[in-house]
C-alpha cells in the first residue's frame, strides 16, 4: 500500500507536468476563441519561437553580458512572433475570409509544414540546448522533490492565464475579441476591424507559444519533436473547454495529476504505459458527458 | 391605379443639397453568378426615415449590405452603379472606416453578442470611435435613457434576454458609434406586434430628437410607412414603386400586395398573381 506521502509526491509531479500542458493549450484557446478555428500549427509555433529565441540568445550573448542578453533575446523573439502573426493574417487568413472553419483548419495544417520546413532550412535538425539560467536541480521540501524548472513553468502558466483573463474581461480590445468570437459578421458590421483582431490574437498565441517553447526547450532541448507536445494539449482543451482560458489551467492540472496517478496505481494492473493514452480516454469520457468541456461557453439556445 | 413619380425626394435635390445617401443603379452579384440586385436606385435625405419595402428575397438586405460594404465578406460584389455617402463614393471603404464616417448597419436577426452582457454589447459599439473614455460613458448613459429596459438588464448575458431586448441592444450598440445614418434591417422580425410598435416608437423618437437618419428594410409595410416619410418598394432586385409614405399608402397595388387590403371588389389570388407579374414588366 503506497503511503499518503508517496501519493502526494506523484500528484504534485503530475500537477506541475499538467501546467506545462496548459501553457501549450493556452495558444489553442486564444485562436479558437476568436475565430472558431482549431489551430493545428500551434505546435509548430512553439518550435519556431524556441528556435528563434535560441538564435537570438546567441547573437545577443556575443554582444553583451548574459543577463541583458536574455531579456533582449526575449523581446526580439516577441517581435518576431508579432511579425509572424501579421504575415499569417495577411497571406493565410485574409484570402480565406468567410470560408468554413474546416478550410481554415486545413490551412493551419499546411502552415505547420511550412513553418517546420522553413525552420529546418534555417536551423537544420540538430538539437539545441536552451538555458534559462535556472539550475536543473530540485528543491527538497520536507522530503518532497520539486523541480525548479517545473515550478518556474507553473508560475509562468498561471501568470499568463491571469494576465489574459484580465485582458479579455476588462479591456476594450479584449471585449472586441470576445465579440468577434461570438459573431464575426456582427462584429464587422459595427466596425470592429477583423484584420487587426486576428493579428492581435495570433500575436498572443505566439507569446503563449514562446513561453511554452522556453519551458519545454529548457526541459527537453529545442528539437523538432517539440511540436508534437501540442498533441498533449488536446485532451486538456477538451476537458477544460475550447473557449475557456481558466479552463486551460484546471484541465491541465486534472490531466497531469490523473495521468500520473493512473500510471502509478492503475498501470501495474494493465501492464503499464498507461500515461501515454490515459489522457485521451479521459477526454473521450468528458466529450460524452459534457461536450463543451468543464468551463467552455454554454451554447445559448433560446426556445 | 395612381402612377407615382420616381423623383422621390425631388424637392431636396432641387435645392442642390446632396442627399445623405445616394444609391444609383446598383447591381449586385453573389459568387460571380447569382444576380440579386438589377439596378437599384434610391436616395435618403438627411434626417429622414426612409422605408425599403418588399417581400422575402426582393433584395432589401442585399441593398443594405451593399451600402454598408458587408457584401465582400459574403462573396457578393457590387458590379455596377455607385453608392455615395454625402457625395463621397464608398466603394473601397472598409466597414470599419464606414462606421467611423457615420454609417452603420443593424443586421437582420439582431445579432447581439450572446455571451457578452448587454452593457458589454453596447460598449463594443464604440470600438470604432477614436474618442474613448469619458464620452463613451456619457453615451452609454444616453442609450440607457432611450432604452430603460436595457439598463435593468445591463448585467445579463445578451443571449438570455428577450427578442425585443435584443433588438434594443442591437440598436443601442449601433447608436454607440455616434452614427448619422443607421441601416436598420427588419427590426420587426420575430417580435410581438406590441414590441414592434415599441421599437418603431423609439426609432421615431431618436430620429426627431437626435436627427439620426434611418433607412429601414421592412416586410411590415403598414408600420414602416407610418413612421417613414418616404418608401421604396423592391421586387426581384428592382425598385418597382417609390414615393412619399402617403402616396404609397394610398396606392392600390401597395394596399393589395403588401397590406392585404383589396379595393371594392375582391379579386381572386390567381388574378392577383397574374396582375402582379404584368405590372413588374411594365415597371
Could you please describe the fold and organization of this structure?
Chain A: Keywords: Amino-acid transport, Cell membrane, Membrane, Transmembrane, Transmembrane helix, Transport. Chain A: InterPro entries: ABC_transp_permease (IPR001851), BCAA_transport_permease (IPR052157). Chain A: It holds the Pfam family BPD_transp_2. Chain A: It is found in: Cell membrane. Chain A: It comes from Xanthobacter tagetidis. The complex is a heterodimer of chains A (about 300) and B (about 280). Chain A has about 300 residues and is mainly alpha-helical. Chain A has a domain at about 25-230. Chain A contains 12 helices and 2 strands; from the N terminus they run H-H-H-H-E-E-H-H-H-H-H-H-H-H. Chain A has helices at about 5-35, 40-65, 65-95, 100-125, 150-170, 170-180, 185-190, 195-220, 230-240, 245-265, 265-270, 275-290, and strands spanning about 140, 145. In chain A, strands 1-2 form a two-stranded antiparallel ribbon. In chain A, strand 1 and strand 2 form a beta hairpin. Chain B has about 280 residues and is α/β, with parallel strands linked by helices. Chain B has a single domain, classed as Rossmann fold (3-Layer(aba) Sandwich). Helices cover about 40% and strands about 25% of the residues of chain B. Chain B has 12 helices and 10 strands. Chain B has helices at about 10-15, 60-70, 95-100, 120-125, 135-145, 150, 165-175, 195-210, 220-225, 245-250, 250-260, 270-280, and strands at about 20-30, 35-45, 50-55, 75-85, 90, 105, 180-185, 215-220, 230-235, 240-245. In chain B, strands 6-7-8-3-9-10 form a 6-stranded mixed sheet, with helices on both faces. Chain B has a 4-stranded antiparallel sheet with strand order 2-1-4-5, with helices on one face. In chain B, strand 7, helix 8 and strand 8 (about 215-220) form a beta-alpha-beta unit. In chain B, helix 4 packs parallel to helix 7 (about 165-175). Chain B is globular, with a radius of gyration of 19 Å. The model of chain B is unreliable at about 1-15 (pLDDT under 50). At the A-B interface, helix 6 and helix 7 of A face helix 3, strand 6, helix 4 and helix 7 of B.
Amino acid at each position: 500500500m503506497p503511503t499518503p506521502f508517496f501519493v502526494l509526491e506523484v500528484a504534485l509531479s503530475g500537477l506541475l507536468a499538467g501546467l506545462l500542458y496548459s501553457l501549450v493549450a493556452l495558444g489553442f484557446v486564444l485562436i479558437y476563441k476568436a475565430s472558431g478555428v482549431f489551430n493545428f500549427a500551434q505546435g509548430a509555433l512553439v518550435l519556431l519561437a524556441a528556435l528563434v529565441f535560441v538564435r537570438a540568445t546567441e547573437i545577443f550573448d556575443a554582444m553583451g553580458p548574459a543577463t541583458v542578453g536574455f531579456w533582449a533575446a526575449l523581446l526580439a523573439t516577441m517581435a518576431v512572433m508579432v511579425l509572424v502573426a501579421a504575415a499569417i493574417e495577411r497571406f493565410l487568413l485574409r484570402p480565406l475570409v468567410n470560408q468554413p472553419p474546416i478550410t481554415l483548419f486545413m490551412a493551419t495544417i499546411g502552415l505547420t509544414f511550412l513553418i517546420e520546413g522553413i525552420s529546418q532550412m534555417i536551423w537544420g535538425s540538430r538539437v539545441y540546448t536552451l538555458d534559462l539560467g535556472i539550475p536543473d536541480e530540485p528543491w527538497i521540501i520536507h522530503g518532497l522533490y520539486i523541480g525548479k524548472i517545473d515550478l518556474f513553468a507553473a508560475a509562468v502558466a498561471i501568470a499568463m492565464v491571469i494576465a489574459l483573463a484580465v485582458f479579455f474581461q476588462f479591456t476594450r480590445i479584449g471585449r472586441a475579441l470576445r465579440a468577434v468570437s461570438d459573431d464575426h459578421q456582427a462584429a464587422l458590421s459595427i466596425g470592429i476591424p477583423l484584420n487587426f483582431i486576428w493579428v492581435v490574437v495570433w500575436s498572443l498565441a505566439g507569446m503563449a507559444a514562446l513561453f511554452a517553447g522556453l519551458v519545454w526547450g529548457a526541459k527537453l532541448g529545442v528539437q523538432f519533436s517539440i511540436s508534437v507536445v501540442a498533441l498533449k494539449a488536446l485532451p486538456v482543451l477538451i476537458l477544460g473547454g475550447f473557449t475557456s482560458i481558466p479552463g486551460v489551467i484546471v484541465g491541465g492540472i486534472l490531466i497531469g495529476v490523473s495521468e500520473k496517478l493512473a500510471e502509478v496505481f492503475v498501470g501495474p494492473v494493465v501492464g503499464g504505459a498507461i500515461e501515454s493514452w490515459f489522457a485521451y480516454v479521459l477526454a473521450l469520457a468528458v466529450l460524452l458527458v459534457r461536450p463543451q468541456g468543464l468551463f467552455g461557453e454554454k451554447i445559448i439556445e433560446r426556445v | 391605379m395612381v402612377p407615382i413619380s420616381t423623383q422621390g425626394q425631388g424637392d431636396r435635390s432641387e435645392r442642390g443639397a446632396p442627399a445623405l445617401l445616394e444609391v444609383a443603379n446598383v447591381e449586385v452579384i453573389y459568387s460571380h453568378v447569382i444576380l440579386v440586385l438589377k439596378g437599384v436606385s434610391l436616395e435618403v435625405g438627411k434626417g429622414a426615415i426612409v422605408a425599403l419595402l418588399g417581400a422575402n428575397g426582393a433584395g432589401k438586405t442585399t441593398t443594405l449590405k451593399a451600402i454598408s460594404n458587408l457584401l465582400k465578406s459574403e462573396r457578393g460584389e457590387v458590379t455596377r452603379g455607385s453608392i455615395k455617402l454625402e457625395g463621397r463614393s464608398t466603394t473601397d471603404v472598409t466597414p470599419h472606416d464606414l462606421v467611423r464616417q457615420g454609417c452603420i448597419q443593424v443586421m437582420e436577426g439582431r445579432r447581439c453578442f450572446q455571451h457578452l452582457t448587454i452593457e458589454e454589447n453596447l460598449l463594443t459599439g464604440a470600438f470604432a470611435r477614436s474618442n474613448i473614455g469619458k464620452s463613451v460613458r456619457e453615451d452609454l448613459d444616453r442609450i440607457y435613457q432611450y432604452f430603460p429596459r436595457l439598463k435593468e438588464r445591463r448585467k445579463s448575458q445578451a443571449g438570455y434576454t428577450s427578442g425585443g431586448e435584443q433588438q434594443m441592444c442591437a440598436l443601442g450598440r449601433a447608436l454607440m458609434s455616434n452614427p448619422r445614418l443607421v441601416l436598420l434591417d427588419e427590426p420587426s422580425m420575430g417580435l410581438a406586434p406590441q414590441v414592434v410598435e415599441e421599437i418603431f416608437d423609439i426609432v421615431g423618437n431618436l430620429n426627431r430628437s437626435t436627427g439620426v437618419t434611418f433607412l429601414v428594410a421592412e416586410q411590415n409595410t403598414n408600420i414602416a410607412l407610418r413612421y417613414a416619410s418616404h418608401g421604396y418598394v423592391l421586387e426581384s432586385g428592382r425598385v418597382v414603386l417609390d414615393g412619399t409614405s402617403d402616396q404609397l399608402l394610398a396606392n392600390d397595388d401597395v394596399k393589395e400586395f403588401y397590406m392585404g387590403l383589396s379595393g371594392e371588389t375582391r379579386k381572386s389570388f390567381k388574378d392577383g398573381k397574374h396582375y402582379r407579374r404584368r405590372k413588374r414588366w411594365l415597371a
